Amino acid sequence: MPRINAIPAASRKRPVNLTLSEGLVMDLKSYTSNLSATAEELLSAYVVEQKLARSNRQQQAEQTVAGWNALHAEVGSFADEHSTL
How far apart are the first and last CA of the chain? Predict the structure, then answer.
């Protein structure tokens, strides 16, 4: 299973443009004094969540393929009985 880590807090910073509605920014100011840090924290958590979801989907796909392969090895293919070849 791949490692799933948040982006290290001490990593190099890069300025980006982000457009938010004025109302949202006004509301955010009452909750945080450092919007950049808060956004980075929330986005890092989102990235970890997405990586985990992707890993889980991949694991489910691999289990499904393994199950179909096991069934095919045990029972054979339904199409084998109806092949015209």
Answer: 41
